Each structure stands twice: as structure tokens, then as C-alpha cells.
């Protein structure tokens, strides 16, 4: 199925990282800094969770949150999503970008090579890939617990090898401040969006 691209972004920042590494925290920080006129956050999991919640009568907003509610359904959501991706790898990417009109897109939750490949194929000049990293100790402090069948499966490990990330962001207490690590990314986004202040 050919992709009807609704707009032509200047820059697409595709984030990935393990559970509780801080993908949402870091992308929310970037969104606040650049502002809603310049950038929007695309969550590949949002259209998945919306349809999954509708089919099962669950709370969509809770599934989008960072609490324990979504963890009860994670394994089943992963399986549900993988069945859709098997038929059409770009299914959730297309849905997530359908109403994006800002010049800078932040994709907060890529998890598979097929996610990256979709953006590299559709937007080869605009796409940059960023990995958010945090130690297991830090992640546990944020509420993560290793779960067999999830943390050793594609949803969490699909981008562990074979990706030459443009940036690695370390989101631990002993890492440099996020604003410092994100400085060049902010500059690139402001340049691409034509909002840089001299
Ligand atoms: N640098 C930070 N300082 C303070 N709190 C943080 C930081 N990074 C993450 N957190 C907190 O840790 C928790 C997990 O972060 P976040 O939800 O961004 O992780 P995630 O990678 O999106 O996880 P998931 O894949 O489970 O959605 C949140 O409560 C978030 O507010
Ligand atoms: C089902 C899934 O989309 C859940 C993601 O939830 P979250 O980004 O961790 O809040 C993960 C996946 O698609 O493998």
C-alpha cells in the first residue's frame, strides 16, 4: 500500500530505549524547549494502545501513562501489535504521523528495525536516530523489573544491535545534564525549523 505522506517535515528525531530509560521524559523535555509550533511528539504505541483499549474496554489514557496499569497488558499488546506489523511493518508509523504538521517530529518510542527502516525509507534526509540509555539500577529505581518474555524479546531488544545511532543520551544521575547532552540536537532542530536565535 503506497504511503500518502501528509506533510514534509524538516527533521525527524526517532528515539528508542529500554523500558524506564526515560524516552518520554527526554522527549517531553525537548518538546517543551522547542515548543508545540515547532515540534510534535509521535508515539508509535498510541494508535496501537487506542485500538487495543477499544477492543478490550480498557483505559487508553492509563495505557499511555508511566504507571503499572499498562504493564499488566504489555505482553498481550506486544503480541497484538506484532500480528499487525507482520501484515504491514509500517502500519503504526503511518497512523502516528497522519496528523503531524510541524516541521520537527519527535518519535518517542521506536522499538524495531522496521520502525527505523520506515522513516529512513520515507524520509531519508530528515531522519536521525537517538538512543536513550540508563543503567538497570536507575531503571529499577524508576519502577522497572526484568520480565521474561518482554525484556528478552524484540520489543525491548530489537534495536540492541545493528543500528548506528546519531546520538546516545545517557539518562542517569551521574551523566552530564540532559540540557548539555541535547545542546547540539536543539541547535539542529532550531536550524531545520528556521527558528535559531543568533
Ligand atoms: N532524568 C530524569 N529525572 C527525573 N525523573 C526521570 C528522569 N528520566 C525518567 N524519569 C522518570 O522515570 C519514569 C520513567 O521514565 P519514562 O516514562 O520517560 O521512561 P520510558 O523509557 O518512556 O518508559 P516506558 O518504555 O516504560 O514507557 C517516569 O516517572 C519519569 O518521570
Ligand atoms: C505494545 C507496546 O507498544 C507498548 C509500549 O508501551 P510504552 O512505550 O512502554 O509505554 C510495545 C511494542 O509495540 O512492542
Automatic annotation (TrEMBL):
It is found in: Cytoplasm, Cytosol. Its main location: cytoplasm. The keyword Nucleotide-binding applies. ATP binds at residues 18-24, 142, 171, 181. One of its GO terms (cellular component) is cytosol. Pathway: Isoprenoid biosynthesis; isopentenyl diphosphate biosynthesis via mevalonate pathway; isopentenyl diphosphate from (R)-mevalonate: step 2/3. One of its GO terms (biological process) is isopentenyl diphosphate biosynthetic process, mevalonate pathway. InterPro entries: P-loop_NTPase, Pmev_kin_anim. One of its GO terms (molecular function) is ATP binding. Keywords: ATP-binding, Cholesterol biosynthesis, Cholesterol metabolism, Cytoplasm, Kinase, Lipid biosynthesis, Lipid metabolism, Nucleotide-binding, Steroid biosynthesis, Steroid metabolism, Sterol biosynthesis, Sterol metabolism, Transferase. It catalyses: (R)-5-phosphomevalonate + ATP = (R)-5-diphosphomevalonate + ADP. Its EC number is 2.7.4.2. Catalyzes the reversible ATP-dependent phosphorylation of mevalonate 5-phosphate to produce mevalonate diphosphate and ADP, a key step in the mevalonic acid mediated biosynthesis of isopentenyl diphosphate and other polyisoprenoid metabolites. PANTHER family: PHOSPHOMEVALONATE KINASE. This is Phosphomevalonate kinase. It comes from Albula goreensis.
Amino acid at each position: 500500500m503506497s504511503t500518502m505522506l501528509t506533510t514534509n517535515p524538516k527533521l525527524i528525531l526517532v528515539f528508542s530505549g529500554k523500558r524506564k530509560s526515560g524516552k518520554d521524559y527526554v522527549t517531553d523535555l525537548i518538546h517543551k524547549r522547542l515548543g508545540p509550533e515547532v515540534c510534535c511528539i509521535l508515539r508509535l504505541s498510541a494508535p496501537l494502545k487506542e485500538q487495543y483499549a477499544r477492543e478490550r474496554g480498557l483505559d487508553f489514557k492509563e495505557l499511555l501513562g508511566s504507571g503499572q496499569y499498562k504493564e499488566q497488558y504489555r505482553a498481550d499488546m506486544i503480541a497484538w501489535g506484532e500480528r499487525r506489523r507482520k501484515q504491514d511493518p509500517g502500519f503504526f508509523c503511518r497512523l502516528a504521523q497522519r496528523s503531524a504538521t510541524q516541521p520537527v517530529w519527535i518519535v518517542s518510542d521506536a522499538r524495531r528495525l522496521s520502525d527505523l527502516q520506515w522513516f529512513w525509507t520515507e524520509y531519508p534526509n530528515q531522519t536521525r536516530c537517538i538512543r536513550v540509555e540508563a543503567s538497570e539500577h536507575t531503571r529499577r529505581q524508576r519502577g522497572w523489573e526484568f520480565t521474561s518474555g518482554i525484556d528478552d524479546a524484540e520489543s525491548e531488544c530489537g534495536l540492541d544491535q545493528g543500528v548506528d545511532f546519531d546520538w546516545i543520551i545517557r539518562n542517569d544521575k551521574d551523566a552530564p545534564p540532559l540540557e548539555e547532552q541535547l545542546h547540539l540536537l536543539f541547535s539542529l532542530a532550531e536550524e531545520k525549523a528556521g527558528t535559531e536565535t543568533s
